[in-house]
Amino acid sequence: MKTVLITGATGDVGTHLAREFAGKYKLRLSDKRPIKAKNFVKADISRMADALRITKGVDAIVHLGGYSVEGPWQGILQANIIGCYNVFEAARKNGVKRIVFPTSNHAVGFYRRDQTIDDKVYPRPDSRYGVSKADKYGMEMYMIRIGNVNPRPLDKRRLSIWISPRDIAQLVSIGIDRPGIKFEIVYGISRNKRAWYDNANAYRLGYQPQDDAETWAEGVLKNEKPGGDPIAELYQGGIFTVAEDIPNPAAPSKKTKAKGKKK
Ligand code: 15L
Fold first, then answer.
1. Pocket, ligand 1, Cβ cutoff 6 A
2. What is the pLDDT of residues 106-153, one digit of tens each?
3. % helix / strand / coil in the chain, to the nearest 5?
């Protein structure tokens, strides 16, 4: 049985994968936020020493650690850019060849909704977060541009980019187990009727999605509230406004500074 490290394991996607992969792989779960689990290791991947410690002795890494939405530049830089570099570099030093990097639809979120894009399009990030999810290196890399993982699609945009927990588990498994991968980009969506992506590369690698967001379309569209940002609605990522006012949770608060407390 392969030993697989999941970074950012306490987030939504990590939680779905940990459940779906129980018994299939020997999992090592890691995150900054601790959870109570025997196979959990606390680590801050913005520190190289932590990245080296958690990547030792694993067969593959599913790197989910970092911001999973737009955030302030300093936070994205530490967690998503420096953190990603540390995990990839630590993997190389520890001889871990296979990395599954769940990137995001936001790495190409500035393509318009009236376009269908494939795995070869030039990245067009729609945000600082989107930039941190636009690609890397020479080991065995498998990049999944994830739409949105949820038991059900949440809104009209997600009818195009939704992926069910069992489909994301299948897609990640291909990235862990399929021999001969050098560098691949696939889209992390179910077999959605309204997809904006041509996912032929995922199908070529053996992906057979079980679900389609269309099953929930009627209910989702009925609940859709009119009056969203009309410019954002042109773009696949749905992000247009500049989020300068997002607070940086990585910055020490005045209280902790005064006491000189470590995070
Ligand atoms: C993402 O990349 C996020 O990780 C997820 O939380 C959703 O916001 C998703 O994109 C989305 O675009 O719906």
1. 68-69, 104-106, 148, 158
2. 999 999 999 999 999 999 999 888 877 765 456 899 999 999 999 999
3. 35, 20, 45
Compute the half-sphere exposure of residue 97: CA atoms within 13 Å on the CB side of its CA. Answer: 10
| Separation CA 173–CA 161 (nearest Å) | 20
The letter for the amino acid at 69 is V
Q: Which of 167, 263, 252 is nearest to 215 (CA)?
A: 167
What length is written for the chain?
A: 263
Summarize pLDDT for 5-62 with one digit per residue, the tens: 999 999 999 999 999 999 999 999 999 999 999 999 999 999 999 999 999 999 999 9
For a ligand 1 pocket test, name from 104, 155, 189 the mutation site with the most ligand atoms within 8 angstroms of its C-beta: 104
- In sequence order, which ranges of the chain are alpha helices (DSSP H)? 12-21, 48-55, 73-76, 83-93, 128-131, 156-161, 165-177, 200-204, 217-223, 254-259
Residue in 101, 143, 146 to alter for ligand 1 test, most ligand atoms within 8 A of Cβ: 146
**CA-CA-CA-CA torsion for 178, 56, 84, 23, nearest 10 degrees?**
50
pLDDT tens-digit series, residues 159-204: 999 999 999 999 999 999 999 999 999 999 999 999 999 999 999 9
Element (H, E) at 98: strand 98-104
d(CA 55, CA 257): 31
**Residue whose tokens read 């639809």:** 105
Asked whether 159 and 118 are in contact (CB, 8 A), the reply is no
Q: Whose CA is nearest to atom 11 of ligand 1?
A: 148
pTM above 0.85, yes or no: yes
Q: Which residue, 160, 166, 139, 164, is CA-closest to 151?
A: 164
